[in-house]
Amino acid sequence: MLDSSFGTWARILSNLIKNYGDRWAGVVAYAFVLIVSLVLACMFYYVALGEVTLVNVLSVVLFAALTSPLLLSVAIYAMRQLDASKEYLESATQQEKLLNQTLKDNINRLNNEIDERKMALHAKHRAIAELRKEISERRKAEQELAQQSMLLRSIVDSSPDLFYYRDERGVFAGYNKKFEQVIGKTSDQLIGHTVQEVFGEQDIPRVLQTDEQVIETQQSINVDVEYPVANENCWFEMRKLPFINDDGEYIGLLAFGRDITSRKEAEQALETAYKDKGKFIATLSHELRTPLNGIVGLTRMLLDTELTKQQKSWCNTVFSSAETLGNIFNDIIDLDKIDREQLDIATDSINVSDFINDVVNFAGLIAEQKALEFNIKRSGMLDIYALLDPTRLRQVLWNLINNAVKFTHRGSVTLECRRENRADGPWLSISVIDTGVGIPSDQQDRIFDMYYKAPDASGNNAIGSGIGLAVTKALVHAMKGTIHVSSMQGEGSRFDVELPLELCSAPNEQSYAGRSLYILLVEDVPLNAEIATNLLEQRGHEVVWAETGEDALSMVETEDELDLILLDMQLPDINGDEIARQIRADSHFDELPIVALTANVRSAEQELQGIDIQGALAKPINTTKLDKMLAELFGIEASKDKQASPQSEPLQLSEQEKALLDVETITDFVSSMGIEPFKRSCDLFARLNPTYYKELDEANQNEDTETYVSVAHKLKGAAGSVGLQNVQLHAKTMELEGAQVDTVQRADWLDDLEVKIREGQSALHSLIAKLAENS
């Protein structure tokens, strides 16, 4: 209790000191002590003595007044110390609490750090384990990649195909052993080097050209190249393709090369075989046709004599068999042309009605030989002019009509001709219908196959070679037409030919005093033949064209009304002088005029010395000299009553036109033929030119100088016909010197030829435009 009271008074005093300071707290305490002393003294004396005296009270108060300041000072000091001690203790306690809290925080943080370090240590162990696993897997992957790389490299190096890679700068960055063997250079000579440092000088232009093509088009290309390997020339089919990154940017070029030497050799052997086969067919046809023509001629003469009925029957059989054999020869020759893709279609402006009349006359004669009725049916407007190949179309109809007569023993053969107007233009439909043995339905799909002969009713193969209908189909397709067959066995057959009609105007005819001539033109260059045919037909003459010497000899034998032979001196199978000798060997043709066509008249006259010919015309044909020749041989002269055409203004020619073109020949042709026919001739040269260039290139690669010279001769004649003087002179050099130079020189000539043709055609088009404006 005392402690509690003391504590209470101590707190009161302490509060007074804090609130009022030492002085005022002492005053208050002093006054309080005096009052308390007074109260206590009164209470004490009252209780103890029963009374309260002033002296007693004052003595107590005085004692209190004297002792209180000291006690209060001590008490105040003590309180001060106690407060200081308390504050210190409170401060110490607070600091201890703070320290404890800090220590707890540090302990917690340390514990957290320990936990984190434990986790980091565990993570480190896991990371190390994963790293070790990754290292192990990477090592394994590197080993597998190295093995795959070695395997791939082994495969690439062991491949018979060559391979190389060049970066975007054209520097070699990779290759295989085959390429190293082909080029004959080591790694140090290949890696990091350019095309100019690796390939030979003769190969660099071609390599760079194909590289540029790949880079520009971003497409792969294939090209055949020739490399010398182990002292032997080997051919490779190179495939070049661009190497593109993910952004579509060109970063290099890949090239693969497959050895195709054996294939090239096979192709060359096949080409040689084709040429040998062509020569063999031409020789065989010539050797067989000569005695056959004798059989036909003598049989024809024998039929004109007095014979018994049996003898006449025998002679007719011989004559028919010989003619059939001759037709088989023609089919064989056409078959060879089809096989070599050299079947040409030469269209001309013909009157369709007149052409049909000629076919009717022929068909009626062969039908009459078997006592068959021949019918002709026409529908639609046929009295028109159209661009057709009369020779090939006549051959198609001859084959079909001859077959119809051959397989018809009684009844009739009918020729139906119709003009049909369709959505895509006019068409000519020709049908050959017979009442013969017919064709079994299961054989009709094969009737146009090569060498196929449908069996007859007895099961035996039909008579013939089995190539006539195959050739017929090829001719119809070459004329952009179609052919179909329908037949009932025992009731007859029907062959339908449909051809598109390209209508045109009638050919310009000049009035000549004299008769029209039937002329055989022997010329192996289609362009020369077309121009010569135009010149002659515009003068009112009929022309038949023979492309080879064999065709010419055959036509001489079979065409009875020939008035003149225009004979080219250099042909692919037989030279002109040999043809002339064979014609003159038959006395039946003693009166048939022969005029040589040649680029060198003096040389031709020397070759034909001792042979009866009636003259020579230089190629390209000059219209004035042609008219003079016709006038000398047949008295045919151009009529003098033609109105003089108005004089045109003189042409203003550029220096390029004067240097590259034979302007006199061109203007002569245009004035004679007209501008449109000459344009068609120029277009024909443009179509033939790539063929000539390809044949020259192949002949040079195969080192076939004979073919090289022969094609150069054809090109020379074709260029001269359209007035390309510079090209003609260049082709003449190739022809005359081609056998004396190497393949490199001939290849250089080909490069020059391409440039000269391009320049010449540009100048020619310019001159044609001027002539058209001036006409």
Descriptive report:
The chain has 775 residues and is an alpha/beta fold. The chain folds into 5 domains: 7-155, no CATH class; 157-265, 2-Layer Sandwich (Beta-Lactamase); 348-503, Heat Shock Protein 90; 518-634, Rossmann fold (3-Layer(aba) Sandwich), CATH 3.40.50; 655-774, Four Helix Bundle (Hemerythrin (Met), subunit A), CATH 1.20.120. It contains 21 helices and 19 strands. It has helices at residues 2-48, 54-158, 177-183, 195-198, 204-217, 261-303, 309-339, 352-368, 390-406, 468-478, 526-537, 549-558, 576-585, 601-607, 623-634, 655-660, 663-673, 675-701, 705-721, 725-737, 743-774, and strands at residues 162-167, 172-175, 221-229, 232-244, 250-259, 348-351, 373-379, 385-388, 412-422, 425-434, 482-488, 492-500, 512-513, 518-522, 542-546, 564-568, 594-598, 616-618, 637-638. The strands form 5 sheets. The protein has a 5-stranded antiparallel sheet with strand order 2-1-5-4-3, with helices on both faces. Strand 11 and strand 12 (492-500) form a beta hairpin. Helix 12 (549-558) runs parallel beside helix 13 (576-585). The longest helix is centred in the N-terminal third of the chain and has 105 residues, at 54-158. The radius of gyration is 60 Å and the shape is rod-shaped. The model is unreliable at 1-6, 509-514 and 638-648 (pLDDT under 50). It is found in: Cell inner membrane. It catalyses: ATP + protein L-histidine = ADP + protein N-phospho-L-histidine.
